[in-house]
Design goal:
474 residues; Outer membrane efflux proteins (OEP); alpha+beta; 4-stranded antiparallel β-sheet; two-stranded parallel ribbon
Length: 474
């Protein structure tokens, strides 16, 4: 008698405990109604004797008026390469970046600027009776114009490489936004599959409970798993909406517009090709080949070399400016030759003035350029060392991610699905309890999430390797 009382108290305690959890879940925020999960209303739970169960009212959580987040209908299906092309033509940041080239090309106009002449007027009306009208013309040696044009050309090339580097970084941002949409979609699909599994398990638990094979606690556990799935699935859809909005922004579209990206073929069709997964039919090149490509193509190395050339051109320009411009003064001259004359009205004058470079011979600029060039040459070794390290690290991460994806694709995902199927079947025939079945379902979802994490790690390593090399790999 005492034992039966304890069992009844334990069951009521469990019901009260899970009911409190469900109430808290209902207050945590809007979720998808059960009707949207199950495709209809839920059957009542009654014991074999027909007496209403205390769980009869525990059927729905959340407001029945709350609907799942709605996704915009997609315009077209785009791939990763399509996203790159569209972003480079429509993103507002691209126009701003490319406009910097116009600023750099203004250096040509600045280099072609010559010193302005000046007007010379001299009035010696009383004492000398001399009047002069003319011009003072600065004469610039021709090599100064040449060195300025060469310096401007080198600076424009440097700006062009910096613009390419900014566009390269934009490409990385597009890849990350695209990958976030893919992972968010697959995660939501995984939660949808878990919802289907939870629905099936709940139906089985209800049938077995009505047949008197299992206690009400099994139904309660199955329904609690359904409630948790509803919250997670709702959040998964929110994540998809947020990711698609960010991708629309990166593509220069309306952030509320519809966009659809390619699905992962391993979760849809294994024969389908996809830009996000490795091509296992092609062998990966050795790390040494990628290091060599990086040393030839890395934009930071090219910018460093071009900066050295620009500073060398600036040094040559400063050396050419050691000799100052001379002034040519020429014009009309008229004098009365006091006191006796004669007065000369049709005279002219010519004068030349030349500054002597004794105290200022561009020593400050020359010293600055030489020191900068020395520092940039030393920095080039540092950049090459860093590039080599980045390529090696990204390569190893890429190899590791490829191996993980291959393992999941070949057998892990299929084995996880088979375990879930057998666990559900085992529960249906009464060979295992519902706890083991729920654990198998959650383990399956965990494995699929780990697969998505492997895909994300692969893409991150692929992006890092592309950044380290300095050119596209696909």
């Amino acid at each position: 008698m005492i034992r039966a009382t304890k069992s009844r108290c334990s069951l009521l305690t469990a019901i009260t405990f899970f009911g409190a959890i469900s109430s808290a879940a209902a207050q945590s925020g809007p979720i998808i109604p059960y009707d949207s999960f199950l495709g209809g209303s839920q059957p009542s739970v009654r014991p074999p004797g027909g007496v209403p169960s205390p769980l009869h009212g525990f059927q729905k959580i959340g407001s029945p008026n709350v609907k799942a987040p709605e996704l915009k209908q997609p315009d077209t299906l785009i791939g990763l390469v399509d996203a790159f092309d569209e972003a480079l033509t429509k993103h507002p940041r691209v126009a701003s970046i490319r406009a910097q080239l116009g600023i750099a090309k203004a250096l040509y106009a600045q280099a072609l600027t010559l010193p302005n002449p000046s007007i010379l007027i001299y009035e010696g009306a009383i004492a000398e009776q001399t009047y002069q009208r003319g011009a003072s013309i600065p004469i610039e040696p021709p090599w100064k114009l040449v060195t300025r044009l060469i310096s401007a050309k080198q600076q424009i090339k440097q700006s062009d490489l910096q613009i390419m580097n900014q566009l390269w970084l934009l490409r990385l941002d597009v890849r990350r936004a695209f990958l976030e949409v893919v992972v968010a979609q697959e995660s939501a699909q995984t939660l949808a599959d878990l919802k289907t599994l939870s629905e099936t398990l709940l139906n089985v638990a209800q049938k077995r409970y009505q047949a008197g094979d299992v206690p009400e606690l099994d139904v309660l556990k199955a329904r609690l798993a359904m409630n948790q799935t509803g919250i997670e699935y709702n959040q998964g859809l929110r994540r998809v909406i947020q990711a698609k909005q960010q991708l629309n922004v990166m593509l220069g579209r309306d952030f509320q517009g519809g966009v659809e990206v390619q699905r992962l073929p391993i979760l849809k069709a294994k024969i389908e090709t996809n830009d996000l997964l490795p091509d296992f039919d092609r062998a990966l090149l050795p790390c040494e080949d990628f290091v060599k490509q990086a040393l030839d193509n890395r934009l930071e190395i090219k910018i460093n070399k071009q900066t050295i050339k620009a500073n060398q051109a600036g040094l040559n320009n400063s050396i050419g400016n050691i000799l100052p411009n001379f002034q040519l003064n020429v014009g009309h001259s008229e004098t009365g030759n006091p006191p006796n004359g004669p007065k000369i009205k049709n005279g002219y004058f010519v004068a030349i003035s030349q500054e002597i470079p004794i105290t200022n011979f561009q020593q400050g600029d020359i010293a600055n350029y030489k020191a900068t060039i020395r520092q940039l040459k030393m920095e080039s070794y540092t950049i090459k060392n860093q590039v080599t390290g980045q390529v090696a690290a990204a390569y190893q991460k890429l190899v590791s991610a490829r191996e993980r994806i291959l393992a999941y694709r070949d057998h892990v995902l299929d084995e996880a699905d088979e375990v879930v199927r057998l666990a559900r079947r085992s529960y249906e025939v009464g060979q295992s309890d519902i706890t083991a079945t729920l654990a198998a379902q959650h383990d399956n979802i965990g494995i699929r999430n780990e697969y998505l994490d492997a895909v994300q790690s692969y893409q991150q390593a692929f992006a890092d390797l592309e950044q380290a090399i300095g050119k596209p790999l696909q």
